[in-house]
Amino acid sequence: MHIDLNADLGETTAGNPVADDAAMLEMVSSANVATGFHAGDPHSIAGTLKNAAGHSVTLGAHVAYHDPVGFGRRFMDYTPAELADETLYQIGALDALARVHGLTVRYVKPHGALYNTIVHHEAHAKAVIDGIKAFSPELAVMLLPGGVAVDIAEKAGLRVIREAFADRGYNPDGTLVSRREPGAVMHDPADVAQRVLQVASTGSVTAIDGSEVKVQAESVCVHGDSPGSVDLTRAVVRKLHDEGIRIEATL
């Protein structure tokens, strides 16, 4: 039995880190690296990529709405053509930096508001998928199970990696609890580790009302920018090791 652990990294901007990328890269199997639109700048992103090249991680482009002030967590009313072009642009920029260090982008994971919007917003979902496919139809896309983006991606012939979250609260319908609401983020390492074990062993998560939600996820996100993220991830790694579950990338 195995599960992929991914983390959002490369989000240092103007020398101000929001995560311990080096520590996280020692534990995860996939890295969603920022592209500069919600966080990160070319030099800091290059540093994360150089570090990633020293570990056996799969590289993903963490594309976002162009919203550095809001850390990509606010909906933006793009035209589909604009969003498709910006998605393509972000993938290309990260891939160019990555190739210097012997890496290539293997998948795309939307960030923040974009990730949550394309669960239900068909036009933006199609635009993101169009941008990904324009770069390469061989790229995979990491998405929340059950959203319209999953159907659009699969119809477009893209590999979909279904994802769950180690430290985020779930609504009974499988969507994530808004960060503006109580219960949006889990902080206890034991609870987070148990959540990941639940995903890996049963393909489900427990929602905030106590109901079980089927996710059938191949990958679990441990947020690098969460308070205590390194300790949370270490707890997850220990729990999986103790249960004989390997941490292994899907690609």
Automatic annotation (TrEMBL):
This protein's UniProt keywords: ATP-binding, Hydrolase, Nucleotide-binding
BP term (GO), one: carbohydrate metabolic process
Keyword ATP-binding: yes
A GO term, aspect molecular function: 5-oxoprolinase (ATP-hydrolyzing) activity
Keyword set includes Nucleotide-binding: yes
EC number: 3.5.2.9
CDD domains hit by this protein: LamB_YcsF_like (cd10787)
InterPro entries reported in the protein's UniProt record: Glyco_hydro/deAcase_b/a-brl, LamB/YcsF/PxpA-like
Reactions accelerated catalytically: 5-oxo-L-proline + ATP + 2 H2O = L-glutamate + ADP + phosphate + H(+)
SUPFAM superfamilies the UniProt entry points to: Glycoside hydrolase/deacetylase (SSF88713)
Superkingdom per UniProt: Bacteria
Gene3D superfamilies named among the record's database cross-references: Glycoside hydrolase/deacetylase
Description of how the protein assembles with itself and partners: Forms a complex composed of PxpA, PxpB and PxpC.
Family: Belongs to the LamB/PxpA family.
Function (record text): Catalyzes the cleavage of 5-oxoproline to form L-glutamate coupled to the hydrolysis of ATP to ADP and inorganic phosphate.
NCBIfam families: PRK05406.1-3, PRK05406.1-5
Name the record gives this protein: 5-oxoprolinase subunit A
Organism: Corynebacterium wankanglinii
Gene coding for it: pxpA
